[in-house]
Amino acid sequence: MRVLSEQHISQLLVHLERKECKNLLETLSSALSKFSAQNQPRYISQATVHQPLRSVITTKSNNTSLFMPVSNTTSTGIKIVTASGLTGDINGVINVFTPEGRLTGLLGAVELTAFRTALVTMTLLWRCHKILKRHICIFGAGQQAEWHARLILLLFPETVASVTFVNRSAARFRKLEGIRSSNPHVTINFLSKEGNANYDTELVSYLAQSDVIICCTPATEPLFRYESVSNPSVISRFFSLIGSYRPDMREVDTQTLLSGENGKIFVDSKEACLAEAGELIEAKVGADQLVEIGHLFTSGNEGLLEYPPSGYNIVFKCVGMGIMDLTVSNALLQMAIEKGLGLEVANL
């Protein structure tokens, strides 16, 4: 059994090479493809991925814990994450087992979750050939935001001209300075709301030129208005909405959410997004408007990736699934073994 602490995982991922990242993209795409394919009626009896909706408990101390079990038949896992009601800190672990229940891996969940969520966004963005990737706008300044920026810069090094981080306060930007120093050819902007009388004007300016907009915040009100992103000079945009995960949370307004062709929204899981995504619930979105990205990665469906037609956007909503954690955990465990990282514990 191998233990990978948060420090081990950070060390493994920060030094990730482009080829390794592309291999992880294909591994995750394959897992998502299998998940979506088995939801078709003719394949339900042959299902290999089993993942009930997450369970949530909140204690009297206002500590909230999420439990996400999953099996892909060849391995089983469960992620347990707790958000402190006192400090807001997040801690958690991912346990990986053999099909027979023998523990093979114990991994810190915080850095891994941020990375795998960004990786899921990249599985779709990587295939959106019609979307330019010159100017990137990212809402948030935590690990989710950081990893979206890192992976975009790793995968599209010749394309990206600027990355703008937008956050309520400026204090958290200090942790992102490393991105600026390691990418001197890219303009890195930081825009904070607190104490900034020009915030609204500056935000509209950044959004107007953005090709890719990533939202990584637990917002309960839209972060911007649709009018800010309807600039005709940018033919089509890519939106990834990964920060809101409860029915009371909304990162964008309904007009932005439905700005894809015929209101089409790409999702990680139809069932989970319809139950948990506040933007979809507010807009009364139906299952027929949703396309699971796993279907796009199935042989024969590649034509769907020619979206969007001119004037429409790509909108992706992700609330996260256990199969993502399990797939990436197994891949990182193997990489750690090959690189001699982590702690091996025998006879547990």
UniProtKB/TrEMBL annotation:
GO terms for cellular component: cytoplasm. Signal peptide: none annotated. PANTHER family: KETIMINE REDUCTASE MU-CRYSTALLIN (PTHR13812), PRNX PROTEIN (PTHR13812:SF23). This is Ornithine cyclodeaminase.
